[in-house]
Amino acid sequence: MNNKYKHYDIAIGICIVVWGAVFCGMRGSFQRYPLSVSFAYFCNNPFYNKLGVNPTFNIIKTAGLSSVPEAIATIDEQEALTFVQQTLDMAITDSLYPIHRVGAPAPRIEGHPNVVLVFMESMTSANLERQGNGQWLTPYLRALRDSSLYFSHCYSAGVHTNNGMAASFYGFVPNFAKTMMDVNAHHYTGLPHYLQQAGYRTMCFMTGNPQYDNMNSFLRENAIQDIYSLYDYPQDKVVNNFGVSDAYMFEYGLNKLDEFSSTGQPFFASFLTVSNHTPFVVPDEYRSRGAEDAERIIAFADDALRQFVTAAQQTEWGKNAIFVLVADHGAPAQPSYDMLLSFHTIPLYIFGAGLQPQRIEKTTSQIDIWPTVLSLMGIDYVNNCLGIDILNQARPYSFFVSNEHVGVADTTYFYCYSINSQQERLYRIGSSDDILSEMPDKAAEMRTYGMNMLRVNLLAIDKKWTELCE
């Protein structure tokens, strides 16, 4: 090579190395997820956790938070609040916290049972009716409908995992595409909070990296004391970008709960599955369970869940436990609507600890889970969300959102509204025909319900009614 140009090659090489080092520094991590605020959280003391957080970064992030869409923001606050209070028959005693009301526990069990909640990745209700190679893909979940409190018309609050977790734990529907687990986490009460107040140890098991969606920081800020994740598993058990398989997470969690149960303290343990999410990693023994991996992985997820629950119920702590199984959200399925209803139609089961089986046909939402569980356990609580104790109350509709739609549904009808195009549709569930022109009054009733409920739901988060009044 001509020496005249040799120094250019050296300079280019140095530039590549320097820029690579700068990029790595900006990213802050060689892991799948770049460095985020969530990495700074290492304990359950908010003061210590925030010592490592950059305040300038926080200010910038706060300034960039997305606002409520205009179609919702233009609804009069007081009118929406009055509508919600009347619709949910709220007896309000504090004008500063206008949706807070004291819960009315109606216990169906005695003592202090352990509580195990499993989020089933993408388990739409339609999966319970699917077959692969002549076999049901979900034989365990199908059979469980007859031996549990089974909610046949349950809807997820959103279409993302963080939506489903926040809704089930704390009772709030998301602000469309905005994550519920933001950098500047709101503080919520809900299931983890009240169980911790009742003397329970609260923990969460997940297959992958806890930094995903800021889960680590959000959950630690909101009454989850212990998080078990990719950081705790052997490297040889990792199967894809989302960590270990459901089966290994359940095995690990079962051993941890066996160990913890020796302390005599009751616990609340949640599990976040992920095997039913691309990229699918199907064990060889499930190759005959479907024509494609998307079917086979559902069979694997169902069986991994069966093995875990069956093994847990044979332990001393499991014989005195409530199990709650719910999807984080659904998945695409027919029929097709402007807003994918199958992304919101999900199964919900509650069983164990002597509960009598019952099929609940009422319209139900993920946001109803925590008031319902606390009520049947007989634990006192203050309800500061729009969820209800669905076993002892009823809601006319469930309301939910996707990234750009508002959805309202009951057991028969489904209404959807696009916040971008401002178009609306009304369907009879099971049919893809728009019947808005045939039933304008029904559409108007459902629109009024959904828009007012969502307005107050987002208002509660913005004004921090999510927290306990002093």
What is the mean predicted local confidence, pLDDT?
90
Number of β-strand runs: 18
Helical content stands at: 25-40%
Strand order of the largest sheet: 7-6-10-2-11-12-5-13
> CATH superfamily assignment of the domain at 103-397?
Alkaline Phosphatase, subunit A
How much beta, percentage-wise? Answer: 15-25%
Please identify the top-level CATH class of the domain at 103-397.
Alpha Beta
Label this structure with key terms.
single chain; 470 residues; alpha/beta; Alkaline Phosphatase, subunit A; four-stranded antiparallel beta sheet; 14 helices
Account of the protein in words:
- The chain is α/β, with parallel strands linked by helices.
- The chain has a domain at 103-397: Alkaline Phosphatase, subunit A.
- Helix content is 33%, strand content 18%.
- It has 14 helices and 18 strands.
- Strand 17 and strand 18 (424-428) form a beta hairpin.
- Residues 55-65 have low confidence and may be disordered.
